Amino acid sequence: MKLVTFKIKESGKQTIGVFTDAGYVDLHAQSNGALPQDMITFLERGETAMSAAADVAANATHAYKEEEVVQMAPVPRPGKIIHTSCNFDAHLTELTGWQAPEWQDHGWGDFHFEHPTGFLEAPSAVVANGEGVRIPRFTKQLDFEIEVGIVIGKAGVAIDIEDALDHVAGLTIFNDVSARDIQAREHANKVILMGKSFVGACPFGPWLVTKDEIGDLNNLKMTLRRNGEVQQDSGTNETHYNVEQLVSWWSEMGLEAGDIITTGSPPGVISGQENPDWLKPGDVVDCQVEKLGNLVTPIIE
Questions:
Q1: Three-class SS string for 42-86?
Q2: Which helix (H) or strand (E) element contains residue 38?
Q3: What's the CATH number where 167 sits?
Q4: Longest CA pairwise span in the chain (Å)
Q5: Each residue's pLDDT tens digit, 77-109
Q6: Number of compact structural domains in the chain
Q7: Which of 27, 68, 95, 213 could form a disulfide with 64 if both were Cys (CB 3.0 to 4.6 A apart)?
Q8: Which among 39, 72, 105 is the end of a domain?
C-alpha cells in the first residue's frame, strides 16, 4: 500500500489514507471511524490496522482526486528523525576531496565504520512533496541529498538484526536539504544542528510504501535530478550499512512508531562540484526512488 496523510480542501479535515487508482482514499471515513486519522496512531496498531486498511481501500467510496486534497508528509510530525552520516562509501570519498577551506580540516579521512554514526534532525523541519522550500536568510550554500527514509512501524529497543524488518512499516523518499556553510561552521565546533534542521530541511514523501510492495529494501535505484538534469545516481545496494543493520543499531535509542531513519546520501551533491552552483529560487529538485515514486521540492524565495 501507499499510505498517505492529506488534508481535504473542502472540509479542511486532515486524515490518513491509501493512494490508489481511485485517488486518495480516506481510511477514517471509509472504515466508519474504526481507523484513526493520524499516521502514528495507525502505525501503532500494527498488522491489524494494515489489514483493515487494505480491506476498506479495496472498495473505496470516500476517495478524492489530487486537486481535492493537500498532500502532507506521510508522517507529518515524526517523534524523531535519525540521520545516518556518510553511509555511502562513495559519498565519503567525495567529502574527503572537497577543497573549500571551511571543509578541509574536518578529518573526513579519519571517518570510522565501527558502527553507524549520525545526528537527529528536528521534526519541525518536515515539509511535504511539492511544498516549496525557502532559502533560509542565514545561508548562501543550499544543497540537496537524496536518501531513503525507513519508517518504523513497531516500537523496540535493542532489536536484533534478524528481527529488524519486523519493526519497519515501509519506506519513503527523503531529501536532506542542507545549509553547507552553516554545517561546516558547526562541524568545526564538533556539533551539527541548524545546518540540517531549519524549516524546510526535511522534505519527504510522497507516501509511505509498505514492505510488501517493495521487495528487497536494499536494492532500490535512487536518482536525483535538478531542473531535469541527473545529479545523483545510485542505489540502496551501495550503502555501507543496510536497512536491517541501521534499524538494529539505532534501536539502542529506543524506536517508536513513526520514527524515521535515513540511509544517508550517495555522491553527487553540489558541495562536491569544483565550482558549486548552489540551489536558488526557481530550481526544482526531483528525487526518484524505484518503487517509492517521486519527491519533488521547488526552491522558492
A1: HHHCHHHHHHHHHHHHCCCCCEECHHHEEEECCCCCCCCEEEECC
A2: none
A3: 3.90.850.10
A4: 60
A5: 999 999 998 899 776 667 666 666 666 665 666
A6: 2
A7: 68
A8: 72
